[in-house]
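Hey L., structure's done. Input below.
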Amino acid sequence: MQLTVTSTPAPGAFADAAARIAALSDELAVGVPDDGPVPVGRFAEESVGPDGLGSLTAAMPFDMVVGSCNPVAPPIELWFEPPKAFGRVNFTAQYEGAPGCVHGAAIAAAFDIILTAANVVADAAGPTVELSIRYRKPTIVGIDTVFESWVTEVTDRRTFSTGRLLQDGVVKVEATGEFVNMSRERINAMHRNRLAGREG
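Output:
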């Protein structure tokens, strides 16, 4: 994906590469189930761990932000230092919006999972209700970028968290989010039931 927006090959090279990629895609398509692609292993209980602080990325291999099996993902590296969650990434050229700057949509998608990581630390994760982003300064492509997030409030039904994006120690973007407060057992049960329904 990065090469498609940075490479300047000889004339005809892209057409030749596209033909070979199309042939490879046809090869791989043979392995897709008749009822469509069914990613597996999402939010596996054993991947996240009993305390919720295991490898969140291992539990979500197809996630578009942190998934190691998703070519759309940068991917962002996550780690935990309770009560905070952190992320590190270098947004390369395919995530560009304005020239030289990371697209705001890529940043918003990143914050959705970064804030969720903080919610996991607090054992209060769940679906996103609202996400608010404040872009203070341009986020530059090709520079090491660090996210940090933490939970500010947990109620019976909602979790509120906040976070920020930094480059070279400068805060470039801030975010706040509201999430449904769901227990880890309930989230895992939802995914098990979903997979069971597809297998049945």
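Helices lie at 2-6, 13-29, 45-48, 56-59, 104-121, 184-199. The longest strand covers residues 144-154.

-- N.
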